[in-house]
Amino acid sequence: MNMLPSAITADKVADWWTEALKVLGDVGLKALNCLIIIVVCVLIASALRVVIRRVVRRIVSGAKSKANVDDTQALERSPLADMRLVQRTRTLGTILQNIVNVSLVIIALILVVNTVDNSLLGSLTLLTAAVGAGLGFGAQNIVKDVLNGMFIVAEDQVGIGDVVELRLASGGATGVVEYVSVRVTQVRDVNGTLWYVRNGEITHLGNMSQGWARAIVDLGVPADADVPAVEDALLTTAQALAKDPKWRTRIIEKPEIWGLESVEGDTLVIRVVMKTRTNAMDDVARELRMRLRDTLLGMDVAVPSLESVQLSGPEGARRVHGANPPRTRPTPVTTTPSAPERGFWRRKRTESASAPAAPAQTKPSPTTKPAPKPEKPKKTPPNAPQSLQLPPKPDPQTPASSDPQTPSDPQAGQDPQTPGDDR
Question: Membrane spanning segments where (predicted)?
Fold first, then answer.
């Protein structure tokens, strides 16, 4: 009887250990499976990374051996090396590594969840639908950027070190490409500003570093210059530049004279072109422009300014019909002469302040006639000639004096003068 409880306790302990070992076995097995999955994914990622690096290294080494150089800087300066291939290969290698890492992480996560509990995958269906809806509405710009970036790199549209002009939906950017990824392209402009451009916003892309470039120089000469002689001298100078050991490695073809480009007033514009390498176009154009200027000065040909000849858009197109209104002379403003001010008549006061007040006016009777109004003196114009006043006739009752001139009349005996008679 005393041995029975101990036997029951031993059975319970044995069952507990059995269940514990079973649970631990299941958990350990699942943990071991998860660990194996993670290790396998890491090994696969490492193996793919090594393969990608070897492919990139082999391509770069082949380009270096073809150019007979040892480093990438010398490869960039070499005229025989395909630097574009090296840049494209390295960019694609980086993108492939990122794609492999993300893909393996997603696969490992799904396998681990399936190993832990099979029912969790069913519940993840709703999560997957939510993620798909988010990608369709909220993250569609990110998906667009990634897809455009993959096509840009795969098609070799742009590479690191290229001079590009990007036209975006809201503006544009021009400069040197410093970094290319599947989502963002970094471009540094001439002012040093680094622009981060999303690949999904790029609508037009102009690459100035692929193939070849053309240096174009326009020179203006007077209208009375000998155009054939000037063209021969300019062509000789350009050919001398192409044969110069310092510049001949940057020039691809012989220079050309495209002749008279335009005529504007007293200026003739002659165009000289030269095909160069993409990274040497600006340097060759500067050197060619300087030598052509010296040649014209040596021929005693004045070089007029091309500011009013070379049209560079609506801002500089002063003589293009419709760009700006024509210049006209200002119309003089004529003012009509104002009428002279008219004076107004004001009654003049004759009564003094000390005069007694006037008697009150009485209403005239109808039988009495009104007194006649005094006549106003007639005004004579200032320039009208004054009439001669004759002396009064002598009274017959008054005896005439023997001397007609009296002291009281100083003007007696003088001839009468008319106004305006200056003597």
Answer: 27-52, 92-113, 119-139
